[in-house]
């Protein structure tokens, strides 16, 4: 590569590290000007004060015809890419590096409620994890995580995202199908309740897969091992974009492989030994009434 190296930057999420090298184009101070999306998706991503990794995990050559490829270790961008696809790849690659050090990002909210740590799992459908968190907070619960719960090999939440909603999507990732985040809050509570945070690592006691829909009668059922693992794997795979476009006309390169999937499935099996419940409810208030019955 003959282009000028414009920037080498290292990011971290806990013990996981990711290096990005940028070539060609105009000089830039950072790979991404805004880390809000990374923090929303991976909980506390930071730019390291110095580069420690010997090789890049992401290479971006800003000159040339638009392309993207993956060789099993390094993701390579070529050409002009907006910030949206770049940040989605950073999330995926950093999630891989987190897995390698025993940290698993879950698409799940977590709350410390009535002496137990409860995870509201996004799972396959993502129908109520944030609403469950809000109602638990209204009843005195402490937020552990909002969009993402980072869980270690022992099944403890060691870190969690703080922002409840993503209020702005970056260029190239806009979604017309996503309702304004405040609409659900207005419907169920009028205004957002206040609550405090629980910041210490905490073992997950119970997992709830919620389904909130105004047409549902309340029902609670214990989940069998297959559906526990099915929903949990969906939650983990959410970060690898195996079913998403990176950008219009561009599929996300496949970063997964059989060894990673087997290791992930083994972790899922261990994690799913704890109690799991599927709860249908018309509102978040009814959802937490059902949770109270379990507790």
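^ Assign residues to that structure.
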């Amino acid at each position: 590569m003959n282009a000028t190296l414009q920037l080498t930057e290292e990011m971290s999420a806990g013990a996981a590290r990711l290096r990005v090298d940028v070539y060609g184009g105009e000089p830039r101070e950072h790979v991404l000007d805004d880390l809000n999306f990374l923090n929303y998706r991976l909980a506390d991503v930071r730019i390291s004060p110095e580069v420690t990794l010997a090789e890049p995990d992401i290479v971006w050559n800003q000159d040339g015809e638009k392309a993207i490829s993956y060789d099993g270790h390094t993701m390579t961008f070529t050409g002009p890419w907006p910030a949206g696809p770049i940040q989605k790849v950073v999330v995926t690659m950093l999630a891989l590096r987190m897995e390698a050090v025993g940290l698993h990002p879950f698409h799940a909210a977590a709350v410390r409620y009535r002496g137990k740590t409860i995870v509201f799992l996004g799972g396959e459908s993502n129908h109520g994890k944030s609403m469950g968190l809000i109602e638990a907070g209204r009843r005195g619960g402490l937020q552990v995580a909002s969009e993402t719960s980072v869980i270690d090999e022992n099944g403890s939440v060691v870190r969690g995202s703080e922002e409840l909603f993503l209020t702005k999507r970056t260029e190239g990732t806009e979604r017309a199908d996503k309702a304004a985040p405040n609409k659900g809050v207005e419907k169920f509570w009028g205004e957002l309740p206040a609550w405090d945070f629980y910041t210490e690592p905490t073992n997950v006691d119970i997992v709830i897969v919620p389904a909130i829909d105004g047409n549902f009668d309340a029902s609670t059922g214990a989940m069998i091992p297959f559906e526990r693992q099915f929903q949990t794997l969906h939650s983990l795979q959410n970060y690898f974009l195996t079913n998403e476009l990176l950008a219009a006309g561009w599929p996300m390169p496949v970063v997964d492989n059989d060894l990673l999937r087997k290791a992930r499935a083994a972790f899922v099996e261990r994690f799913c030994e704890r109690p799991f419940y599927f709860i249908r409810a018309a509102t978040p208030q009814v959802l937490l009434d059902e949770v109270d019955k379990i507790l």
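The chain has two domains: 5-100, 103-294.
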